[in-house]
Amino acid sequence: MLIKDILSFEINRFLVIGFFNTLVGYLFFTVFFYLANNELLALLLSYIIGILLNYKTYSKYVFTNSNQQFFINFIIIYILIFIFNNYLLYLIENTIQVSLYIAQLFAISIVTPLLYILNKKYVFIEKKEL
Hints:
Blueprint: H1 3-6, H2 10-36, H3 39-62, H4 71-95, H5 100-123
Helix pairs in contact: 2-3, 2-5, 3-4, 4-5
């Protein structure tokens, strides 16, 4: 099977692009936390960058729908996921007693699939013809 065939499936494109976006977001999170030593600020800044980067890559390469009218929904989803991610980060860090860096790895492994589902259902909605 060719790479082109594999990437013809939306979920596979999401896995590839999602891995890239998650890696970039995690790297920004770790750098911001290292520089500011403030987990909420690091998470917030990495999400702001993530909103800009992820909307472009998801709309163009995953859902192949770059209609700008979906951007507001995308931001709303990311705000909700940010709040959930922040809660998970706190919960994981304090329950399992792991470092913030490891806690965020656990948190993003939960929020990333959730982002796909929410983006598919509420952001990049395919219009059905009547």
